[in-house]
Amino acid sequence: MVRRQFCYLLFCCLQLIFFSLILCQNFQGLIDTLKFGTKDKKLAEIKKINKLSKKEVEAALDLIISEGEPELCAQFLNQAQAILPPQTVLPKILSLLSQQPSQQNQILIRSIAEYISYHKDEPYVYNFLKESTLSEITDLQQKFYLIQYLSVFTSEQILPIVKTLHTKQDIIRLAISKLLASYNDNETKNILISYLSDEISEIRIQAVKSLLERKHWDTIPQILPMLKVRPLSEQVFKLLNEINDTDASHQFFLSLPLFEDVEIKKLCIIQAAKFKSSEYLSTFIQLYKKERNTELRTVLKDVIEKYDTQSAQFVFIPFLYDKELYDIIIPMLIKIKSSESIPYILNIYEQLPEHIKSSIDEFMPEATNERFAYHILQKLNTKDLHLRCVLLKTLSSFDIPHVYEMLQREIETTNNKQVIQTLILSIQRIKNYDRQALITKLLIKKCHKDIDLLTELLNQLSIIISKKEYKHSIFFPELVLLAGHKNDYISDKSIEILKDIVSSSSINEIRILYQLISPASDKVKSKVVKILILHPDNEFLTFATDFYHRSKNLELKKLLCEYVISLTNAVAHEIVVESLRSKNTDLQLHILNSSKGKIKYEDLQYLLPLCYSKNKSIRRSAVNNVANLFTEKERNYILNFLKDDDDEIKTIGIELCAKILPKEFVQFVPNFLESKNDIICQTTLRNLQDFEVREKNVIATVRNIATNHSSLNVRAEAVTVLSKWKNCEPETIEVYFSGINSSDQRLRSAAEFAFDTILPLCETAEDIYLKGIISENYNVKTFFLKKISEIKPQSITIKQKLKDLIFTSSDENLRNTYFSTLAVLITENDMSILQELYNANLLTLKLQIIKLIQNFPSSDVAEQILFLALKDQSTTVRQQAVEISQNFLNSRRIYEALTYIAQNDTNYAIRTQATKILTKSKR
Predict the structure, then answer these.
(1) Are 203 and 177 spatial neighbours (Cβ–Cβ below 8 Å)?
(2) How sure is the predictor about 92, in pLDDT bands with cuts at 50, 70 and 90?
(3) DSSP states along 478-537
(4) Cα–Cα distance for residue pair 629/656, rounded to 1 Å
(5) In three state form, how does the secondary structure of 317-328 look?
(6) Which of 384, 402, 459 is closest to 425 using CA atoms?
(7) Per-residue pLDDT band at 32 (split at 50, 70, 90)
(8) Are 60 and 30 in contact (CB under 8 A)?
(9) Do the beta carbons of residue 201 and residue 232 sit within 8 Å?
(10) Are 242 and 272 in contact (CB under 8 A)?
(11) Across the chain, which distance is largest between two alpha carbons, in Å?
(12) pTM: predicted TM-score of the whole model, two decimal places
């Protein structure tokens, strides 16, 4: 037990010694750094003083103060704030405060302030500052800063010091004026007020700053006279102008009568109006009226025009009758949208200048509310027509039955165009839709004979309709009536609106139109049917039949037939059949165009007669419409088409004959191919593609067309036909080559398609390939090289030819293409070709061959090539050879060569790669 206690005691002693050594080492390091280190190292070392003892920190303080560097002292003071007491620090640090101000000194001054604030509750701190400040031996600069530090204490604590010093030297008075900004008692306030008349400008400015910072707004009248004192005026103006407080604004307002100076008055007006307090506005207006100074009048006007608050309107309204103020008061009431002022404005409207009237005209309809309807209705009897129109526009937005009744009476009784125009422009403002519709209908009736008014009314109606808030079918009767108007614009605009309404109406609403257009003119019926076509309805068929039989209007008949076809998707309806059988070619042609894609086989009986029409357009349209429905039953029609003098019909006949009557088609082919019409010849060729033709004369004709025809399109079609027949005759091959060498894209594409088709089947494919790859035309050459790569013909002749081309080609890109093609064909039996190429001693070629031979590890020739590559002088070749040698490690000489490379090659990367391969092989 005793032994254990002894061991524990020994351990504690050793630990104490260890930590003491560390602390001593830390202290000595600090001392050395402070003596000899750079500034950055000193600052970094000071941050570690919390690891030192209190005595060591005190010793370090003496050394730092002796150094005299403010930044070091500031850093030290921040770190030692909680370690060293004020009794130790303050007397020593005081001497540094006498230096001239600089940025670093300011850092120290702030650090001392923080230190004093931290220890402010210790009596020593207050006593030290008081004694030092009051001491006669303390330097004035030191006193300046010490006075600032007093701000951490209460006014009761600092007052004895301030009262003693506040009349002393300039620098002391300046310090006190700064200090007193932190307090709010009357005694310090009076001291600051006394400084307002100090002989030193800096002290006076600081006193102003301190008073304003304390928000002693009652001193503003005492500060304002300083605006007349140079050079204080600019600084004082800036300080006063920056005030942003409602109580301060009140003081500025109260100061207005106290001064005559223009600049002081301007500042007071601006600051008083800063928060737009309505209680000052009346005074500003009265001052504006009385003021004769131009500058002040301008400022007052600007201030008044900033009062855009709702509460301001009640101040403005009493001044409305003052003519001198019209240009200020009325625009302001308009700006704040003062509805309360409307009755008062109406009382003086007639005597106002025109430019103000125009502003009121725009403002009143938007600002007035229904509370003032009585006042406005009273004014409607005015003799001022312009005002009457403004009032009508205003009233139109009031949702009041009495107002609606008045508007209706106005429409019925007035003949004044300006009034009617106002009512038209106001219909959008009517809030009740039923009333809006009724008034619009009354206006349409009223304006029927006046084109200008009716045009404007339709424009307004168009806007109402576009909002699609309601069902607007209520306007169908008026719009149908206007659709027949003699003025084209009115008629067209009415139809445009009608179309818009119909597009958003239900089918039941649309049906209202059927009865409405029944008594209308054929012109109106035509316009409405154009709309109805987009909304087909079986119920309209009866009306359509009736309209058709009663009308002689061709346009209407066309539209009615178009309607029936779009609804029924057939031509079997009574009026359509009647139209087809009529002698009117326009009507027949319109039906044919309308029925495209809708004719069924059972409808042929109505259309076949038109295929024999003497009118070429009718005949052509009929044939186009029914051709896709033909069968062998229509044989005679098809054969007749072949004889038609219209090339388009003849072309359709050729296609139908090829499809439905193949035997007859083959018989006609020679004649068609000899046609001078390119389209007929090309159509015949296109349809020949699917026929197996063995007649030599036909083949020869097609070949001749492919070679000599004047149309490149026809020639290209002929080449395609020959390839579809898989014709590989030598003469045909020459045709293909002629096409692929052509500069025309169509011929080239057809020839390429031909070779794509025949090469896998043609017995002379080898000759074709050889001829293609030696072509002078680069595109032809690359095409055949690509085909060889795709089809892979196993021809030793082709391989040898590719080898020869590689040797003889001076174009490296082309040589690479040759080799890429050859590489696809190479087998193990072709290694001798690769060896010959390797011996050509071309670097790029060598690399390609090395990469290729890795696919043939069992070939002796491939092994020989690799062995040569491993000994090659080129680093790139050896590296490539090493990379593929892992496939050849069964060969003794390759293994030995690789071992030699791993040990002796001059290139580190190659040695490393060889070693990796050998290591893997041993595993």
Answers:
(1) yes
(2) confident
(3) HHHHHHT-SSHHHHHHHHHHHHHHHHTS-HHHHTHHHHHHTTS-HHHHHHHHHHHTTS--
(4) 10
(5) HHHCCCHHHHHH
(6) 459
(7) low
(8) yes
(9) yes
(10) no
(11) 142
(12) 0.59
